[in-house]
Fold:
Amino acid sequence: MENFELTVLGCGSAMPTTRHYPSSQILNHRERLFMIDCGEGAQLQYRRNKIKFSRLQHLFISHLHGDHCFGLIGLISTLGILGRTSELIIHAHADAEEIFTSQINYFCRDLPFNIRFNAISPNQNEMIYEDKSLKVFTLPLRHRVPTCGFLFEEKEKEKHLIGDMVKFYNIPVRELASIKQGADFVTPDGIIVPNERLCRPADPVSRYAYCSDTIYQEKLIPLIEGVDLLYHEATFAEDNKTRAKETFHSTASQAATIAQKAQVKKLMLGHFSARYQDDSIFLKEAQEIFPNTILANEGVKINF
Structure:
């Protein structure tokens, strides 16, 4: 059974087009929703994909460029109109609280819910969120303003008890939790029963890495090694490699090189420049280096 479902709400870059919305995604982990970036029009795409507003609790902003956060005030206003009462937590650069609080106070007065800003340090690789089954880490990126990506990583899971062995050794219920976590069992006679005799291995954990605007940088590779899915910006094709470097963006080939060197399982490209009328050029260039590449597009859902 898949543990993550990713829905792409927008995958365009700064210049608006009729083909793509600005950056925004929804990551569903066991029916809990996390929004990653909130470009203009994100809430329209939210509705179009029939996602429940009430299940959104955390929002992660990679950096404070408009195509990644201009949709935030509209989303907050709608949540207020819908009568939301639960807290909304926004993980973003420290400047975000000052920037958005003035707008919230002006446009979204008397909200029925609290908004809490969690200041993050984009230049650090650190855990910024944790619950009983998931951790989220920042991934330092290099762009024109402080920018980070995000790594969503499941916690190590419990092992699976072998029912017949539990019955055979007449293991008390109070012992089962510790055995699932790796403990051996000691019988009343003092015999140690190894854990591997009592349990099957735990299911592997799932990991998703989101790398928004960034120049090519190999420092990222050890942080995302082996992830199930990597989203990496590919603003330009190789015909604009010089422009990519000047604007601190990446090409599709560079994104594929990162994926190849990090040995990720699947790569998804996004953040396409408006100058390209056909996104297939990104896919062609990337697949020459990393075959298991797909393109982001509005409404695309990936389960992993």
